[in-house]
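Re-running GTPase Obg to confirm reproducibility after the cluster update. Everything else is unchanged from the original entry.
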Amino acid sequence: MSKFIDRVVLHVRAGKGGHGCASVLREKFMPLGGPNGGNGGHGGNVILEVDSNVHTLLDFHFHPHAKAGNGKPGEGGNRDGKQGTDLLLKVPDGTMVLDNEGKVLMDLVGAGNRYIAARGGRGGLGNAALASKARKAPGFALLGEDGEECDLVLELKSVADVGLVGFPSAGKSSLVSVLSAAKPKIADYPFTTLVPNLGVVLSGDTTFTVADVPGLIPGASEGRGLGLDFLRHLERCAVLAHVVDCATLEPGRDPVSDVDALEAELAAYKPALSADADLGDLADRPRVVILNKIDVPDAAELAEMVTPEFTARGWPVFEISAVSREGLRPLTFALADLVLQYRAAHPKAAPARPVIRPIAVNETGFSVIADPEEPGGFIVRGPQPERWVKQTQFDNDEAVGYLADRLARLGVEDELVKQGAEPGAPVTIGNVTFEWEPQISAGIDMVPTGRGTDIRLEQDNRISAAERKHASRVRRGLVKDDEE
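Result of re-run:
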């Protein structure tokens, strides 16, 4: 049996970027071929797109994990790796994207509207792209970056013009079935309707949609019954129509008290989107009162008695019978007129043009703070230094020296000196911790050595860990300077 799912948790992971290639051209009669390693391909994105043919989030309920394709590594001969394949996920119109804390990230309304849920990692540069005057044939390449990974909450809110509100068994499903071609389940017991039903109504030249929301009861805004799960489907409705059962035999119920109880629930419910499509709160929407089941003689008399009460509130009142179809024509034209008034006051926005946002390459901002967990340590934060650390092959001395040069040119070394960093102080960037060695001449012209090596990292004039420990004990007065 098919299920209606309107809220799911989706785990998305974008593709990883491919690693760059470190290659040097070696051919006969070409002794100085130079570096020819290609760049790695970027990872694929995870994209959500509105599709008018999708009406539920059921697919994500059974398949909650989504992963895009990884980028391919670069190759020799200046061949770049293939880009990772984007993963396109189709969602219904009216899907809201939220993070784990309930913050709205995107409201997907309108066919074709897109949202990049997770961006793929950048591919690493090959040694051909890293060649410079100082490094004519780099013996290393940059690693590809990991793609974004996060958990998203998808909530579906029906996009309908008219929302039918009423107690269970008030006749909402029957009314949708006679106004449109929709065929909802209809029975004579409460809570027959377990999922919202949408119907398309044609009135003259006007076409609008009607949503039948599962029956509400007092306390629905606090979680009683089924109302709390489906009240959000009324948030986008331009007109709210109270469907009142005038033939109910339940003691203590009458049309006026039923409408008052439901009005209290609508006023208590707080939409997630406080200004969704400029509609405001549910309490501010136009109202229509539909007195149903007047084919029953007692119900017709009761409807005639309570009509002045609702008219005094300024609400249009319609006496109908979904069974005999009495009074449906005036109701249909009245609803169409209210919908046209709303559309005139809220014209559809022009389709959003695609915005191309180039990948930023010069985020120079960074900060250096004291490490709260490591005495004398520091933490360097910033998108650029953190990305550089992720791209570095730490088993390659030349790559480590290249990282030191980049950090020095960015100003990290100078900032550490200003904040009083001592030689050997632990410095954390991203998930990697270094022992800071100011003796390493980073940022100056290096002396070329063998591929994959850096002579600055092999200097023997650096202070050893044992010497730093001894100097620390001397400063604290634990030992004398001439003692071992």
